[in-house]
Design goal:
The complex is a heterodimer of chains A (129) and B (250). By secondary structure, chain A is mainly beta. Helix content of chain A is 9%, strand content 50%. Chain A contains 2 helices and 15 strands. In chain A, strands 2, 4, 6, 8, 9, 11, 12, 14 and 15 form a 9-stranded parallel β-sheet that branches. The termini of chain A are far apart. With 250 residues, chain B is α+β, with helices and mostly antiparallel strands. Chain B folds into 2 domains: 2-111, Probable inorganic polyphosphate/atp-NAD kinase, domain 1 (Rossmann fold, 3-Layer(aba) Sandwich); 125-236, Sandwich (Tumour Suppressor Smad4), CATH 2.60.200.40. In chain B, 21% of the residues lie in helices and 38% in strands. Chain B is built from 6 helices and 16 strands. In chain B, strands 1, 2, 3, 4, 5, 6, 8, 9, 13 and 16 form a 10-stranded mixed β-sheet that branches. Chain B has a 6-stranded antiparallel β-sheet with strand order 12-11-10-7-14-15. Classes of the chains: A mainly beta (129), B alpha+beta (250). The interface between A and B is medium-sized, with 22 and 24 residues. Strand 2 (22-30) of chain A pairs antiparallel with strand 9 (145-149) of chain B, so a sheet runs across the interface.
């Protein structure tokens, strides 16, 4: 059900496509969908959906509305709504999202915060005691 | 007042009947004007400047895509409307602007649907369709980021306003000449054959082009060849052109 609902997964064409043969360095900001199959170093920020393909190598801080990740990322990932990691995905960094779906085999090394609240629920209960 | 310019290749005998039909149709539609046939002694720039001095408001070029591309640099900074009459159905610019070939174009000229479209600018040279660099290790510098190739190999980098001559304006990637942006497309040799995911696409207003090999060539509208490093930018709303109802943009 989640798969079908994630708009980032179904992007076929986008205003920005970083193909497999291309390397981008710097701060990349957009209001529209982005597809990455190449290499990016720096920052990626979009108000819309982000799809990172299996061959992609990304060393960047990422901010997006929805994200579908099948490539390798070194950096923190912040997703406003849905984040989907496929079995080929690899993230070295912290993850923030409202909803997360991870396929078996996906690698995530870092802190993970999922949900609407700014603080994890378990931590806030401890404070009450 | 109309000025009709026939490009010099039209002096060949095989175009006689087509030009005769065009001239007759213009008379029928009541939009006859001064006709100038270019030759080795008469160039397009002189003819247009003379025409403007005499009060010409509409310049119509009869020719092919190369003719239309040449006229752009002459009239881009002038207050005239451009019309085109493609001599045959091979004109891709004609198709994009919705202008049919031959004497059928005269009706489009008579209808005078005028659109203001963007042009691209490489250095000081305007282009209507695209500028292309082939097989170079190219670095593209935008304001906030740089774009390069992962491994130096054969590729094609194109900067598109219409994108029909460069072949990038497809159903998958719609290039719009009225959106205030140019479309950068990087294709490697594999994607040129298969249109696979190696194709990259960015929209931009201005960038600097540098090639690893000094003096590498950038081909503009398949007509002019300019040297790199150079800048490529959008010239928004620079050209007023007569279009048909079947044009491929809004």
């Amino acid at each position: 059900m989640f798969k079908e609902d994630n708009p980032a997964r179904d992007i076929k064409s986008a205003e920005t496509i970083i193909g497999a043969s291309v390397k981008v360095e710097g701060d990349f900001t957009s209001d529209h969908d982005i597809i990455i199959d190449g290499e990016v170093t720096g920052n990626i920020r979009t108000k819309s959906n982000l799809k990172i393909g299996p061959g992609a190598r990304v060393k960047a801080e990422i901010n997006a509305k929805n994200a579908y990740i099948a490539g390798g990322i070194i950096g923190n990932v912040t997703v406003e709504e849905k984040l989907q990691l496929t079995s080929e995905a690899s993230i070295k960094g912290n993850v923030n999202a409202t909803l997360l779906m991870m396929e078996m085999g996906a690698k995530l090394n870092g802190q993970c915060h999922i949900g609407d609240d700014s603080k994890p629920e378990v931590l806030s209960k401890k404070v009450e005691k | 007042m109309y000025l009709y310019i026939h490009d010099n290749f039209l002096s060949a005998k095989r175009y006689e009947s087509a030009l005769y039909r065009i001239e007759n149709r213009l008379v029928d539609l009541g939009i006859k004007g001064r006709v100038v046939r270019l030759n080795v002694l008469k160039n397009m720039s002189e003819v247009v400047n003379d025409g403007i001095r005499q009060g010409v408001k509409t310049v119509v070029v009869v020719g092919d895509d190369s003719s239309f591309s040449k006229i752009i640099n002459i009239i881009a900074d002038k207050d005239v409307v451009l019309g085109i009459i493609p001599i045959d159905k091979r004109s891709k610019i004609g198709q994009l602007l919705g202008v049919p070939p031959g004497h059928a174009a005269c009706e489009t000229i008579a209808q005078r649907i005028i659109k203001t479209i963007d042009l691209g600018l490489v250095g000081n040279y305007y282009f209507i369709d695209s500028a292309i660099i082939r097989n170079e290790n190219t670095l593209l510098k935008l304001k906030a980021f740089n774009i390069g190739t992962r491994e130096p190999k054969s590729n094609q980098v194109s900067f598109n306003n219409l994108g029909v001559l460069s072949g990038v304006n497809t159903k998958q990637l719609s290039v719009n000449p009225t959106d205030g942006f140019l479309d950068l497309v990087v294709e490697d040799s594999e994607s040129l054959l298969s249109r696979n995911k190696a194709t990259s696409h960015f929209r931009f207003k201005e960038l600097t082009v540098e090639c690893a090999q000094p003096g590498a060539i950038i081909t503009v509208d398949q007509v002019a060849k300019l040297k790199t490093p150079t800048t490529v930018q959008i010239a928004k709303g620079k050209l007023k052109v007569i279009v048909g109802t079947k044009r491929l943009f809004d």
